[in-house]
Amino acid sequence: MLRKTASAALLTISLTLLAACSGGGTPGTSAAAGDDLLKLAFLGGVKTPDPDTAYDGPELNLVNSAYEGLVTYKSGQDKAELTAALATTWSADPTNTVFTFDLREGVTFHDGTPFTAAAVEKSFQRRTDVGEGPAYMVGDVKSVATPSDKQVVITLDAPNSAFLDLLASPFGPKIVSPAAIEAHPYSADGENWFASNDAGTGPYRYGTFTPDTSYQLTAYDGYWGAKPGYPTVEFSVVSSLSTIQLQLENGELDGLAGYSDSTTFTALQAKEKLKTYQFSSMQTPTMFLNPKSATLADQATRLDLLAGVDFTDLATKALGAVGKPATGVFPANLLTGADDQQKITHDGTKLASLAAGSLKSKTIKIAYGATSADAKNLSDNLAAVLNAAGITAQSTGYALGTYFPELEKGAAGPDITFFAGFPDTAHPDAWATVFYTPKGGLDLFGAEVPGLSDTLGKARETGDQQLYAQVASQVSESGWWYTVATSLGTAVFADDVAGVEQSYHPVITGVLNLAVLHPAGA
Amino acid sequence: MPSWLRRGETLAVVMLSVVLVAALIGPLLSPYSSIIPSGAPHLPPLSAGHLFGTDELGLDIATRILEGTRTSLLTALVVTVIAAVAGMLIGTLAGFVGGVLDTVLMRVTDLFLALPATIVAMAVAAGLGTGLTSSMIAITVVWWPLYARLVRGEVRRTARALHVEAARMSGTRGTRLVLRHVLPSVLPTVAVTASLDIGGVIVTVAALSFVGLGAPAPAPELGLMASAGLQYVVNSWWIPVLPGLAVGLLSLLFNYAGDGLRAVLRGKGA
C-alpha cells in the first residue's frame, strides 16, 4: 500500500513538473511548409462540416470556404455590409415579403455541374429536410420561383426585414449542387456524405478529412472569383491552447483564428515572427439573472446589484486583451449608440448596502459553461468583486451536458450565469428574439418582459430602429440581462502571412475568409 | 534516534509537523484573504508581498495553498476516521460472528473492492452535487471496504490467540470479549493503515476537486486551484504547479510518516 500510494504521489509531482516544463509539444512535427501550405489549428475538434448542420462556429472555416450563399457580408470590416456572392443583385418588395435575386453567371460546382436557379430551391429544400438548428433561417420561405436560370424570386409567409441578413449569416443557407443532393440524400441515422465531401462553389474544396485529427482544404481551380492565396490550407486538431501556443512559437503552425485567452494572446504579442490581430465582433458576453432566484427575484435588489458592479472594470479585468466593455444593450454595430444605451448607472455604494441588507447571509451562485473562457473569467471575477464587498458568492463551471439542465432548475439553480453568445446574423432581431424571449432558445433562465415579444414582432416586419431602441430600454430596465462586454476576435499569424486584416468576419469570432490570406509579398 | 526509525521517516515526521502547524495557524497569520484579490494578477513567485505569487484573479497563492492544505488535511482526517470506524464495525462483526453474516458482509465488501474506487467516488459525488461534503461522502463510500477486509482478518486471527481463549474460558463473552481482548490487538494495524491512507485520501479529494466535483470557486481547494490554473501553465506556471506540488508533497509526507509509525509500532512489538 505504501509503495503504491507513494508512487502515486511521486507521479503526481512528476506529472505536475512535466506539465510545467513541456507544454505538450509534438516532437518531430515538420515546420510549416511555406507559400503552398497554410497550417492552422482547431482547438479540440469541430462539428460536422455539413453546410446544413454546421451551427457551432469553428467548422465554418471549412464550410464557408467550400460553399457560398446568395449574399454574404464583406470580410475585414466592423460594420456588417451585404455584398454579392452567388447573387449579383437583389431587391426586396416594400413589405419585406418578396425577394428577387439575379444570379451570377459562369459559376460551377466542385462536381463540375453548372450553377443555375434550380440549385437555390434544391438547397433550401435540403436545409428544411435536414431540419437541424440553422433550418429556421428558411423556415418562413413560402416559395422559391425560378423565372429563368439566372433569377430566383423568394416569397415568405410573413414580412421579415431580417431575411437578407439571414441569407448572409455565416450559418446562412449555402447553395449545394443538386446532383450531389440527389446522389447523397441526407439521413440522420446513416453516414453523411457531406461530412467529408463537399459540393459547393467556394474557392476551396474539401481535401483529406481525418475527423478529430486534421482537415485539409485545397483550392478549386474552377472558382469564379480571385484565386486563393494558398493552394492548400490544413487544420490540425490540438487539444490544448498551451500546445498551440508552443507550436506557433516554434513555427509548427502558421496561425490561429480565435480561441486565444487574454494571457495567451498577450504572451504571443511579445513574440518575434508572430503578428497578433484584434477585430471587432458581435460576440457579446452577457449576464443573465434568474427570475426564480430567491435572492434576485426582487427587482430593487436586482437593479442595485447591477448598479453596484463596476462592469467596465469587471470586463477589463476579466477579458483583458480579448474584450472591451460594452456600453449598449445590443451587440456592437447593430444599432446606433444613441438608440442603444444601458439604463443602469454605476453606484459604488450599492454593494455594501446589499451586503448589509437584502443579501446579508445569502450566497449568490454564479454559473458558466466550462468551455467558455470568457464566461469563466467573468464569473470568477464577479465572485471576487462580490466577496470583496461582503456578499458571499460562488463561481461554478458546468460541462456542456450539465450547464443548460442546471439553468433549468429554477429556484434550485444558479442565481446568475454568464454566456458569451453572438447573433446568428447582423440584425437586431437575430439577437433580441433569441436572447430576450423565452421562445428564442437562448433566454437562458426564461425571463420575460411583458410586451417585449409584441414589440419585436412589429420590428421584425419593418426593421424600425426605434422599436429596437425601445426593446433595448425595456431589457435594461428589467434587470434580467446585462450586456457586459464585446468579445474581440483574435488571430495570431506568422509574419509571413498577409491579408489577415481583410479576412475577419464582422459577426462571429474565430472564422476567417481564408481565401484572402496570402504569403507576404505575393 | 531509535534504530527502527530511519532518517528519511524522521525527516518526514518533522516536515509533516511543520506543514501541519503552518496549515493550522498559517491562514491566521497571512495578511490576505484567500478569496479576495490582494494584488495584480499573474504576479510570479517571490514578488513583493506574495511569496508564491498571485493567480489570474490576483489572489495570493501562498494564502490559498495554506488554507487548501488545511481543508485537505481536515477532509482526509474525517474521511479516514469515518471509513476506518465503519470498516472496523463491519469487519469485526463479520470476523467475530462468522457464518452467514460473515459471508454476506464480505460479499458486499468484495463488491465495493472490485469497483474502481476513484471512478465510483466521482459517480457518487456527481450524483450528490458539487461541494466538499459531497466529496467526503463519496470518498468514504469507497474507502471503508479496505478496513472491513483488514479488520475481519485480524479479528479472526486474534480470536484464536491464547489470551482470547483464556478470556473466553474465564467466562468473558460477546461485546466485552471483543472490546477488551480482540480490538486492542487490531487497533495498531488499523492505525498504521489509516496513517498510510491519509495521503491517498488527499490525492483523491484533490482529484475530485480537479474535475469540478469539489467546492465551487473561489474555495481554496488544491485540486480546483491546479485545475483552474492549468490553462496558464505555459505563461504563469506557478498558478497550477504550486497547488499540484502541495498535493504531491502532502501525500508523500503522510506516506513516509505512516511508514515511520509502522516502524515505531513494530519496534515496540506491535
Can you characterise this structure?
The complex is a heterodimer of chains A (522) and B (270). Chain A is an alpha+beta fold and 522 residues long. Among the domains of chain A are: 83-177, Dipeptide-binding Protein, domain 1; 284-487, Dipeptide-binding Protein, domain 3 (Roll). Chain A has helices at 2-22, 60-66, 117-130, 163-168, 178-183, 241-249, 262-269, 299-308, 311-319, 350-356, 373-388, 400-407, 428-436, 452-462, 465-478; strands at 37-43, 71-73, 82-84, 87-92, 98-103, 141-148, 151-156, 204-210, 214-219, 232-238, 255-257, 274-279, 284-289, 323-325, 363-369, 392-398, 416-421, 481-483, 485-487, 489-494, 497-498, 518-519. Chain A has a five-stranded mixed sheet with strand order 16-15-17-13-18. A four-stranded mixed sheet of chain A has the order 1-10-9-8. A four-stranded antiparallel sheet of chain A has the order 4-5-7-6, covered by helices on one side. In chain A, β2 (71-73) and β3 (82-84) form a beta hairpin. In chain A, α9 packs across α11 and α13 (428-436) packs antiparallel against α14. The termini of chain A are far apart. By secondary structure, chain B is mostly helical. Chain B has a single domain (63-267), classed as MetI-like fold. Chain B is built from nine helices and no strands. In chain B, 51% of the residues are buried.
